[in-house]
Specification:
There is one protein chain. It is built from 21 helices and no strands. By secondary structure, the chain is mostly helical. α10 runs parallel beside α12, α14 packs parallel to α16 and α15 runs antiparallel to α16. The N and C termini lie far apart (about 85 Å).
Length: about 375
């Protein structure tokens, strides 16, 4: 503060004397003033980029001084300064090549900084390596146990590794720091759902939307949990709320389609599946569900196209394969259907529905003994099966 005060006074005196240094000083402070006074820069108490424009005045001032000391020094000094600046800028730009690189440099220079470790953990997570991010989040929390988002992101990393109980514990620690964090409450709901604790997941999602009513993901997740709890009407309400907040929310559209299809509202379901695919055209599950809805409305050719597309995206999608074979079966294309059922059973010999459906196709082709064998296998796997 004392240094800034001295420079400010020197600038005023120089301006009164009509000195060029007064103009440079004024430029320095005027260029720096917006970012240091009226423009809010959250969580950036010190940021080097604020100085970039102001330093033009310093560089010009140095050149003036050199010019007054010895004119012949000016050109070589300018060349040397320019070259050094180029190399320094190149080195600094290398640090900025990715969020991972910048965070790594920050941790190297400030190893006791909690925020730096937290940023590095986030960067590693974004690079698709959540297991490697865990130690950085733990270190961040050692240095600052009150960093709520570090608990949240640590839990996300743990959950991705299947460490559900520890993830739940970390989410609860995050909520101790911020009990109304909608983000943490939503993520806690996801973890509880992964644990199979449906009712507690619903409560957590409800708290999330209560805390933040415009949180589309939380409404969509609450809808999913309510649908699985056999409360489809409430599920539809929350799916619609999610879509009202975010019209392109693919998950809400897709799951709303499922809920509507369960109520035999096929045309509405098809419309929402299409909107889900408009937002994310490469979702194999949505393509499969759209195919099922189209098949139920008698649009078999279109259904077959969607089942094939789903299988192209995910060849191991046995449900889509079974549905494709069923659609072919319904069109009387028994040989094609049989081939698909047999491919499914090569991947999963215990797929009950495929055995039953294959038996039906075989029977229609007059291959009675083979059909009986598959019916028996289906009943062996599921004694109460309807076939």
């Amino acid at each position: 503060m004392l240094g800034v005060l001295v420079l400010s006074l020197a600038t005023l005196v120089a301006l009164q004397k009509r000195s060029g240094f007064g103009v440079l000083g004024a430029f320095f402070f005027l260029a720096l003033a917006p970012s240091s006074s009226v423009i809010p820069i959250v969580a950036q108490t010190v940021a080097e980029h604020r100085m970039y424009l102001s330093l033009a005045a310093v560089a010009t001032g140095v050149m003036f001084v050199l010019h007054r000391i010895h004119r012949r020094l000016l050109a070589p000094a300018a060349i040397i300064a320019g070259a050094l600046s180029i190399f320094a800028t190149d080195a600094r730009c290398h640090d900025y090549r990715s969020s991972h690189a910048l965070a790594l440099q920050t941790v190297a220079k400030r190893p006791m900084n909690s925020r730096a470790h937290y940023a590095l953990g986030n960067a590693v997570m974004l690079d698709g390596n959540p297991a490697a991010a865990i130690p950085h989040f733990l270190r961040s929390l050692e240095l600052n146990p009150k960093r709520v988002l570090a608990y949240n992101n640590l839990a996300l990393a743990l959950l991705s590794q299947g460490i559900v109980d520890e993830a739940l514990r970390r989410y609860r620690q995050a909520l101790q720091g911020d009990p109304r964090s909608a983000l943490v409450l939503n993520n806690l709901g996801n973890a509880l759902l992964a644990k199979g604790n449906l009712q507690d997941a619903i409560k957590s999602y409800e708290r999330a939307v209560e805390s933040r009513p415009d949180f589309a993901d939380a409404h969509a997740n609450l809808g999913f949990a309510l649908f699985n709890a056999q409360r489809p009407n409430q599920a539809v309400t929350h799916y619609l709320k999610a879509i009202e907040i975010d019209a392109s929310h693919a998950g809400a559209h897709s799951n709303l389609g499922l809920a509507l299809a369960s109520q035999d509202r096929m045309e509405e379901a098809i419309g929402h599946y299409r909107q889900a695919l408009a937002a994310n055209s490469e979702n194999a599950d949505t393509l499969n569900n759209l195919g099922m809805a189209l098949a139920r409305t008698g649009k078999m050719e279109k259904a077959i196209g969607h089942f094939r597309h789903s299988l192209e995206l995910r060849p191991t999608n046995l449900k889509a394969g079974n549905n494709l074979a069923n659609a072919l079966n319904a069109q009387g294309r028994f040989n094609e259907a049989i081939e698909h059922y047999e491919n499914i059973l090569k991947r999963n010999p215990d797929y009950v529905e495929a055995h039953g459906n294959l038996a039906l196709a075989l029977a229609k082709r007059g291959r009675t003994q083979e059909a009986l064998a598959h019916y028996r296998k289906a009943l062996e796997l599921k004694p109460d099966a309807a076939w």
